[in-house]
Structures are given as structure tokens and as C-alpha cells.
Write a structure and sequence with these properties.
The complex is a heterodimer of chains A (263) and B (329).
Chain A: E1 2-7, E2 9-11, E3 33-35, H1 37-53, E4 56-62, H2 68-77, E5 81-85, H3 95-109, E6 113-117, H4 128-136, E7 140-147, E8 154-160, E9 165-172, E10 175-179, H5 191-197, E11 202-205, E12 224-230, E13 239-240, H6 245-258
Parallel strand pairs in A: 1-4, 1-6, 4-5, 5-11, 6-10, 7-10
Antiparallel strand pairs in A: 2-3, 7-8, 8-9
Chain B: E1 4-8, E2 10-11, E3 14-15, H1 18-33, E4 37-43, H2 47-53, E5 60-65, H3 74-88, E6 92-96, H4 99-112, E7 115-126, E8 129-134, E9 142-147, E10 153-157, E11 175-178, E12 191-197, E13 210-214, H5 224-234, E14 237-240, H6 242-246, E15 267-271, H7 277-280, E16 288-293, E17 306-309, H8 312-326
Parallel strand pairs in B: 1-4, 1-6, 4-5, 5-11, 6-10, 7-10, 13-14, 13-15, 15-16, 16-17
Antiparallel strand pairs in B: 2-3, 7-8, 8-9
The chains are: A alpha/beta (263), B alpha/beta (329).
């Protein structure tokens, strides 16, 4: 079985974010990055499926040179090889433009399954996986919490619904699944994996390699545009209790007793 | 001039409450842009839901009532709304940002080559053009989005961004128009086997008076003892944000947020929780909210009444001692 897993490089969860001078992006200078959380789970799910049935996982990433770090990590975790969509024409796309490029790359690979994370921790559209399914003409299912090995050309998966409800469904292959965080514990890259990753194939592709017009991807292919990125004005500001730990905790207990009257 | 459509999500024949938030947003957008607002109700056996929606102030309700729309699967939903949109050519189609909408509306956007601004919390009109506000980077930043080009525009609104009660009622019930769609040629590729509730929640946190919730900041399971002691000192229940349950440090029935329980205790302490929107929707209606986090910019402080910026491994033991002292324990 061949599985393509789409991954995205995002700032680390705890990273301090500074807005760049253009007012439309985050200044990534010196910001630590990681593979988007739900994409890590997608990678783990893909590796488990491939290990169970035999087959390979191909990591697919769209991003600049710096994103190579995320690709190396995916290879170290166990992906067999990687495709890096890296070209100035891909920059500043929206979910639609990015999905178009990812779909073209996935189509060339002709996999049985494409996995993505549920949503990215930076833009957070929660659209890309489903958009690329429609571009490929394949069925899709979202918020997947469990996957069974395919049988008779169909795959059985458990979807998370709202308010603690779940659903078992089947869909025909090839298909796209978007993976919910928490599906399986994510493995660490071993030292052996990290060393081995250096020898694995990493193919760099641009729009022309995918049969795409540079005018339909990246910023040129956008359907929606970011006008301004800014720090939100806090509506209800918490009273921050300062001083050393003893002072702050004493002040908190005092407030809870006298103001809030909850102690 | 095309209309604005507000699409209602139905479940077991009823309109989900969040659909009225979409109508409230639609009424506001219609007023700002001077366009008519129509509601769309789709599902199977949903005329009753359409009648409830028709009470709200909308020009008309378009009813798409087809057996193939039950149970929900993405293929017939996408085909049904695509056909209706191609026939009536609305300018905007609005949705609630639910799990179900995430499952099929991107497919509709790709099929129609439309722009889709998802998870919107607010909007304003600038020179007749709507500017939509989203909260990327886990709610740490705000972003203003506009549509490129003049094609169809799809928008989904975050739960709680608009209030269902603000969806004004009309002077009389709006007319209900049956919107004809032909789904006979649509192949339903997804087969639903079983829809179920995983485990009955053993712990009903919605009844708790005091909740101490712990997040990713706790670092590892072995550190949970600190939080348990604080919860015990306060006579409260222990709860967690999603990452803690994903790591299996605490069982799923302790999870607060959009994929867990929704709570409103008298006192809610969020320890090492940054406050992603998925967590906030589950606890923001609590009485008094206290946040303890090392990052002064964490979104949790914007819903908290009191905050301590600091290392939870120093703050929590000190707080536990002070609480014990205060309660004479």
C-alpha cells in the first residue's frame, strides 16, 4: 500500500510570535518550528498502516527551503522518501491554492491513500485535506480517530463527531483522510532513523513539474486574501497578580475569598 | 444582485441551535451589504425544522428535503447545495463552523471554485466590501480577510461568535420554497455503519462546583499529582484540555472543550492551558476563571478574571498551601 502524508511546518506551539513589517505575516526569524501537530498524528497513522500491510509512506510538503527541517524529521520518523513543493510561485497561497499543488503532486504518485492533519496550527482553515480530495475526485472523511487495514478496495475508519459521538464509516480507495490529534501516540525519531534520513530521497518540485501554471498556485491562485495580521485587543483583561510566588498566590486566595466569594 | 444564504445544519429532523447563530450573522451581513437574506434547510424529513427557521427574519426559506441526505454523507450534501447554488446564484453562502461543515463544505468550495473563509469570529463592511476576522495561530493573532475576485463566497462562523438569540424574528413567518434538486445520479461513496457514543461519561463535570483543569504545560503524567493536590484542597474536580487526554495522561471523560464536556462551574482554574478556542468554548461561561500560565500573552488570560504569570511548578504548590490555610484544612 502506498500512502502519501501531507505535512506542514508551523511555529512551535509556545513560540513567541512577532508580526513582520509587511503587517501580513509572522516574522519567522529565529522562531523554532515543528511539524504541525495533527500532521504528526497523520504521519504516525500512515506509518502504522504501511507497517501493517507492507508498503511505503511518502511525505509531501509545500514550503520554503527552511521547511526541509520538517521533511528530515518525517524521514527520520520512518517515511520512505519525500516530495518538497518548493518554488517562489507556491508562496503565500491560501488553502485553495495550496490544495491545488498538493493534489497535483499526489496524483503523480497515484497512492491508495492520502492523509493530512485535521487542520494547521497556524492558518487553521481545516480545509486543505477535503479540498484536495475534491481536486483528485476522491472520497474523503475527516476527524479520523481509528483506521482499519483496507479490505476489498474499501477502508473502514472511525470519525469523531461533536459532543462525544463517533461514527464508523467505510469508503472506497483511493481516498483522503484528515486525522484528528490523539489517534495513536506519535513515535519519536530514533538516532538510527535520524542517521538513515540523510540517505533518503527528497525530490524538489515546482509548478511546471506538476503540470501547473505558476499563475494558478501560490499568491496568484488565491481565492481569499489576508489583509492584515495583528495582536487582538483583549476585551476582558484578567487582573494579573504580580510579585513573587508567595505574594501572588496570597493575593489570589484573598480575591477568591473576598471579591469572587468562591472560597 | 445575489442573495445571502444561511445554511441550517439539521440533526434528527431538527435545526441545530448553532444554525440560528448563522442566521444572526446573516442578518447582520445582509444589513451591512444591503442584500436579502435567505435560509437554506437541507436534510431528510426536515420540513419541521424549516418551519422553525421561517419564524426568523429571512426573505424565504429554501427547503431541500431529499431521503438521500440521511444519514449525512459528503457526496449528496455537496451535490444538493451545488445544484441549488448553480440554479439560484447567491453571492454569499454562510455556514456554522461545525465538524460536519468541515467535512463537506471545502469539497463544495473546490467543486464551485469558490473562496471559503472558515472559522470567522467577526466581520465589518469597508467600502461596501465585507472584511472577515479570523483568529489564526491558535487564537494568538487576529487576521482580516477579504475575498479575491467576484465569484461565489463561502463563509463559516465559529461557535459562539454570534448569538442565536440575536437572530431577529420576522413580523410573520417567511415563505418556505421547495428547492428542487436531482440526486438520482449522485453516487454515495461513504457508507455509514454505526453512529454511537463512545463511553458514557463516568465523570459528569458539568455538575462540578469547582474545576481545576490542566493543560500541556504540565509536561508529563508524573507531574499530575501537583494538580490533584490543588483540586483536593479546593474540593474540586480534576479536568484537562485535549492534549493531556490525547497523551492518555488523563481519561477522555476529563476533557473540557469542543470535543469534550462543556462546563460552567462557580470556579474554574486553568493551569498550564494556553486557551485555544477549542478549549475556551467548553469553559468560558464559568463563574470565576483563574489562569496560571508562563506565557503572559496566552489567550486564556483574555477570558480569565485573575491571572498569575509564572512557572506552574512553583505557583501551584504555593497556591495549594495557601488554599489549605484559608480553608483551615
Amino acid at each position: 500500500m502506498k500512502i502519501v502524508v501531507c505535512i506542514k511546518q508551523v511555529p512551535e506551539r509556545d513560540a513567541r510570535l512577532r508580526i513582520a513589517l509587511d503587517g501580513k505575516s509572522v516574522d519567522t526569524t529565529g522562531v523554532a518550528t515543528e511539524i504541525n501537530e495533527s500532521d504528526q498524528y497523520a504521519l504516525e497513522a500512515g506509518l502504522r498502516l504501511a507497517e501493517g500491510a507492507g508498503g511505503e509512506v511518502v511525505a509531501l510538503l509545500l514550503g520554503p527551503d527552511q521547511a526541509e527541517e520538517a521533511i528530515r524529521r518525517a524521514l527520520a520518523m520512518g517515511a520512505a522518501r519525500a516530495i518538497h513543493l518548493n518554488d517562489a510561485a507556491f508562496q503565500d497561497g491560501d488553502a485553495s491554492a495550496t490544495a491545488k499543488a498538493l493534489a497535483a503532486a499526489a496524483r503523480q504518485e497515484a497512492p491508495d491513500l492520502v492523509l493530512t492533519g485535521l487542520q494547521s496550527d497556524d492558518a487553521g482553515w481545516s480545509q486543505t485535506g477535503v479540498l484536495l480530495a475534491e481536486r483528485l475526485g476522491w472520497p474523503s472523511a475527516t476527524l479520523i480517530m481509528e483506521i482499519e487495514q483496507p479490505a476489498d478496495g474499501r477502508i473502514k475508519v472511525k470519525r469523531e463527531l461533536e459532543s462525544g459521538w463517533f461514527q464508523w464509516i467505510t469508503l472506497p480507495l483511493p481516498a483522503v483522510l484528515t486525522i484528528q490529534s490523539g489517534i495513536y501516540p506519535v513515535r519519536y525519531a530514533t538516532l538510527k532513523g535520524i542517521m538513515g534520513a540523510k540517505k533518503k530521497e527528497m525530490k524538489k518540485l515546482g509548478p511546471l513539474d506538476l503540470g501547473l501554471d505558476p499563475g494558478e498556485v501560490g499568491a496568484a491562485g488565491r481565492r481569499v486574501e489576508l489583509h492584515r495580521l495583528y495582536v487582538p485587543v483583549k476585551t476582558a483583561q484578567a487582573e494579573i497578580l504580580g510579585g513573587d510566588v508567595a505574594t501572588a498566590t496570597a493575593a489570589l486566595v484573598d480575591r477568591l475569598q473576598k471579591e469572587a466569594k468562591v472560597l | 444582485m445575489g442573495a445571502i444564504w444561511a445554511v441550517t445544519q439539521t440533526e434528527k429532523g431538527e435545526a441545530k441551535g448553532i444554525s440560528f447563530e448563522t442566521i444572526a450573522a446573516g442578518q447582520k451581513l445582509a444589513a451591512a451589504l444591503g442584500k436579502p437574506l435567505e435560509a437554506v434547510v437541507l436534510g431528510a424529513g426536515v420540513r419541521g425544522a424549516a418551519e422553525k427557521v421561517a419564524v426568523r427574519k429571512v426573505e424565504r426559506v429554501r427547503l431541500i428535503d431529499v431521503p438521500k441526505l440521511d444519514p449525512y454523507t459528503p457526496d449528496p450534501y455537496t451535490a444538493a447545495l451545488q445544484q441549488a447554488i448553480e440554479a439560484e446564484k447567491p453571492d454569499f453562502v454562510l455556514f456554522p463552523h461545525t465538524y460536519q461543515v468541515r467535512d463537506w463544505v471545502p469539497r463544495l468550495a473546490a467543486a464551485l471554485d469558490a473562496g471559503f473563509v472558515s472559522d470567522v469570529v467577526d466581520f465589518r463592511a469597508e467600502g461596501g466590501e465585507p472584511v472577515f476576522v479570523r483568529q489564526p495561530y491558535q487564537g494568538k493573532l487576529n487576521a482580516d480577510y477579504v475575498f479575491a475576485g467576484t465569484g461565489l463566497r463561502l463563509v463559516s462562523f465559529q461557535a459562539g461568535a454570534f448569538l442565536a438569540d440575536d437572530a431577529a424574528k420576522g413580523d410573520s413567518a417567511a415563505e418556505i420554497v421547495e428547492q428542487a434538486v436531482d440526486l438520482s445520479g449522485v453516487e454515495v461513496r461513504t457508507q455509514v455503519l454505526d453512529t454511537f457514543q463512545e463511553v458514557e461519561n463516568k465523570v459528569d463535570l458539568s455538575r462540578a462546583d469547582v474545576i481545576v483543569a490542566v493543560g500541556r504545560g504540565i509536561g508529563k503524567q508524573e507531574n499530575l499529582g501537583l494538580i490533584e493536590e490543588l483540586a483536593a484542597a479546593l474540593g474540586g474536580q480534576l479536568a484537562a484540555s485535549r492534549p493531556v487526554c490525547d497523551n492518555e495522561w488523563l481519561p477522555m471523560d476529563r476533557q473540557i472543550g469542543s470535543s469534550g464536556q462543556t462546563v460552567a462551574p462557580r470556579l474554574y482554574l486553568a493551569v498550564g492551558i494556553s486557551g485555544a478556542i477549542q478549549h475556551l468554548v467548553g469553559m468560558k461561561n464559568s463563574g470565576t476563571i483563574v489562569a496560571i500560565n508562563k506565557d503572559a500573552n496566552a489567550p486564556i488570560f483574555s477570558v480569565a478574571d485573575y491571572g498569575i504569570v509564572g512557572d506552574l511548578f512553583e505557583v501551584v504548590p504555593a497556591l495549594t498551601a495557601k488554599v489549605r490555610e484559608a480553608r483551615g484544612a
